[in-house]
Amino acid sequence: MHFVEDTVYFKSIPEFYEKEEDNRKCNTVREMPGVEYSTLLGINPEHIVIQNTETSEDFIREITDISRWKNLVIISWDEY
Q: Where exactly are the structural domains of the chain?
């Protein structure tokens, strides 16, 4: 995970990337310690970029929700 302005970047394995990119799965679930979660909320990103770990192909979406359950963070987005 890294940030550029109002955008958060994640990498995703091909199995999940395909579902996320074609909007069958409009969220990503990440294990995130408290410090990283605080950073995420502090930046309050408006967009998410997901990059395929094998091909480096990526897509961008507008974030609709950031939720936390225990040490998991669920970032959801609008389908395009």
A: 2-77
pTM of structure:
0.90
Residues in CB range of 76: below 8 A, 6 or more apart: 26, 27, 63, 64, 65, 66, 67
SS3 label, residue 12: strand
Residue 35: the pLDDT is: 86
Radius of gyration of the chain measured on its C-alpha atoms: 12
Which structure tokens are listed for 45? 């990103």
- Segment 51-76, tens digit of pLDDT: 999 999 999 999 999 999 888 999 99
Q: Which two tokens stand for residue 26?
A: 């409009």
Q: Is 66:41 a contact under the CB 8 Å cutoff? A: yes
Give the separation between CA 1 and CA 7, rounded to whole angstroms: 10
Q: What's the CATH architecture for 2-77?
A: Roll (2.30)
